[in-house]
Amino acid sequence: MKPTNSPKTYRVKSFGCQMNVYDGERMAEMLGERGIVPAPEGEDADLVVLNTCHIREKAAEKVYSDIGRLTKGKTQDKAPMIAVAGCVAQAEGEEIMARAPAVSMVVGPQAYHRLPEMLDRAVQGERATDTDMPAIAKFAALPERKRTNPASFLTVQEGCDKFCTYCVVPYTRGAEISRPYGDLVTEARKLVDAGAKEITLLGQNVSAWSGENDKGQAVGLAGLIRDLAKVDGLARIRYTTSHPADMDDDLIAAHGEIDKLMPFLHLPVQAGSDRVLKAMNRSHTAESYLRLLERFRAARPDLALSGDFIVGFPGETDAEFEETLALVDAVGYAQAFSFKYSPRPGTPAASMEGQVAKEVMDDRLQRLQAALNRDQWAFNRATEGRTCEVLVERKGKHPGQWLGKTPWLQSAWFEGDVGIGDLVQVELVEAGPNSLAGRLRERVAA
Ligand code: SAH
Ligand code: SF4
Ligand code: F3S
Fold first, then answer.
1. CATH architecture of the domain covering 138-382
2. Which ligand 3 atom is at minimum distance from the Cα of 173?
3. Residue 1 — pLDDT band, cuts 50, 70, 90?
């Protein structure tokens, strides 16, 4: 590649999970420190960072179609500089470099703190790949948080040691590590100073977080949440994603004790058949999962539940799929994500016998989603008539309309004289399948 001008504008496009959103924000901050500014809406950027996801085949293929779109019909001096980051970069770095000559940087999720150095090399015309995995070093090398949204993300834990047989995350994100307690309290304070009212603690297995508090005591996620709840100006705390194996008594108790901890739990189950769960290497059964949820609900009766599901795992029979539907009926989720099984290279399930036909998966997904949508709407209807606190996150479609989140993570829209970041009391008037129409009652100070 030829040496080129230093980029003046950037755009970061993040795909996949919220941890990628967090990483995308941190990369944007680093580029900002270098004087590179976000490209104005609708204009081409000089530098595009594709922050990719490898979880399912469709997600992974997106990177190549995006590269094609960015470079189509453009000579090298007109095309943007492209960096591929995220989990596809980690899993397929070499392949991207070989397949897409327009890409000048490939940087993995644990190495993106070195993006500025790579950019210097790219400007000289060199192509660079960095997929090292020194996760902790990354955070120390990132700039301080200076701006954020009212509802912010804070990555507290990275990586996964669970090795579910279908999943690429242990390979793309590496082993489980916890960021140190002190760094997290500091980052949370900075986020609040920058305007955050709500913080969602993130991790591929966030409930596996462990650390040592300022008194030198060993603490788990609940201990961290208890201390973050003392941060003035922080009104709401959430966490995601949890694994049923790491949920301890203290975390369950925290839901009953800490007002700032929102009544919402995302706890993926994946399937309702114990045979399938075992083949997936999930360490829970349908029964142990349901018992766990009962304990959470006993601690916090209005807890809204969310989950993830995979249909068509290799060998899943019709009868086993029915067990997933039965589990859904037993739980009554407030929302959930569901996916068709996608074989991922290098994972044990990809070479298992009994791969399920696409049409069968389509049919199962449709039936599962119908059940989940039914329950989501029922949950929304059950909150009709309640007045609750809403955090205003953005403007709605119509002038004077605002959109925010209820404690149960429902989207609520309403009209009134408010601003982004306000915490307001809203009466939930009419429930739709995906959101609720509300009426502003009063503003509350944060
Ligand atoms: N750490 C979280 C989430 C990981 S990825 C957890 O353990 O639950 C998010 C979701 O993607 C998973 O919960 C799973 O439902 C889905 N998923 C992961 N690998 C998949 C695959 N190969 N095919 C289809 N869905 C998959
Ligand atoms: Fe993937 Fe399982 Fe780890 Fe979740 S717990 S990230 S599904 S391997
Ligand atoms: Fe995707 Fe990586 Fe997140 S594979 S779901 S971006 S951890």
1. Alpha-Beta Horseshoe (3.80)
2. 7
3. confident
